[in-house]
Amino acid sequence: MNEIEVRMNRFRLLAAAATILWGFTYVISSTMLPHTPWFIGAVRAGLGAIPLLLIAREFPPAGYGPKLVVLGTLNTGLFFGLLFIGALRLPGGVAGIFQALGPLFSVLLVWPLLNHRPTTLKISSLLVGLLGVILVVAKGDTALDGVGVLAALGSAFSVALGGVLVQRWGNPMTLTGFTAWQLVIATVELGLATLVLGDAPVTMTSVNLLGLAIVALVLTSLPFFLWFKAIHGAGAANVAPFFLLTPIVAFALDALVRGIVPNMQQSLGMALVIGGLVMNIAAARRTTQEAKVQEVELPEQAVVD
């Protein structure tokens, strides 16, 4: 294994850790948080930003402000709001399935926005993984809430587009500061939405407070830092397939908390998700190897000429 592959694997591990942590969001939302999605999003973003701001201690460059607002809206503001609407209206595993559409959105978006045409193997890997997630969470007796479905779809598209734009526009700040200020933007946006929509809870229990602390610090500050580091290091399309781990974790936690035992269909789905991830990694390695071959052939051709 060469140095490039070792570095890519390190970034893949960071992406996997981030998406696994995000998988805990659904069970925490349904069991510990008040049913006020915009308020939850605002608190999550605000508390998540504080430790990162204290570490970074920097302000964004003036010229980068408009882009940072767009990225903060897509990656955190709109994403958080829609995510919690879906999480509160749908079962955890079912809500998580729509996050699995993020990789497909990313692979399709990098084509027009970054001029990176996806390979057949990469698209196939995503479709295999998506089929696996569908098998894991699909049940004949599941009644899906329409608003919840649309919100979950919107959250997946929002964060996928944000990840691709991060790769296109770059980041003139430290990774900690970059993450922190996106969360600040989300705090302002979601705070205003909470006030306008009257979404603040009337009372808060100790369980609610604990849940908010877990969501903000453990499931926001850390995974977003890891996620953006993975995007900067490996590219949005290469790390996006790890979104497939989020619904698997959400389903597993549903099983542990609610005593739901996976059936044969769901077990097959889990195997397909793992297979899809392996296929995607193989596709990325093939692309890396082809790029190295081209780098070697070009200088040799120059010598011949």
Structure description:
This protein is mainly alpha-helical. Helices cover 81% and strands 0% of the residues. The chain has 13 helices and no strands. The protein has helices at 3-22, 25-32, 37-56, 65-89, 92-99, 101-114, 120-137, 146-169, 175-197, 206-234, 236-239, 245-258, 264-304. The longest helix is centred in the last third of the chain and has 41 residues, at 264-304. The protein is globular and about 55 Å long. The model has no long low-confidence stretch (mean pLDDT 83).
Topology as a string of helices (H) and strands (E): HHHHHHHHHHHHH
Termini separation (Å)?
A: 33 Å
- List low-pLDDT spans: none
> How many E strands?
0
- CA-based shape: globular
Rg from Cα: 20 Å
SS summary, helix count: 13
Mean pLDDT: 83
Beta-strand residue percentage:
under 5%
Which structural class fits the helix and strand makeup? Answer: mainly alpha
DSSP helix fraction: over 70%
Main beta sheet strand tally, sense and closure: none
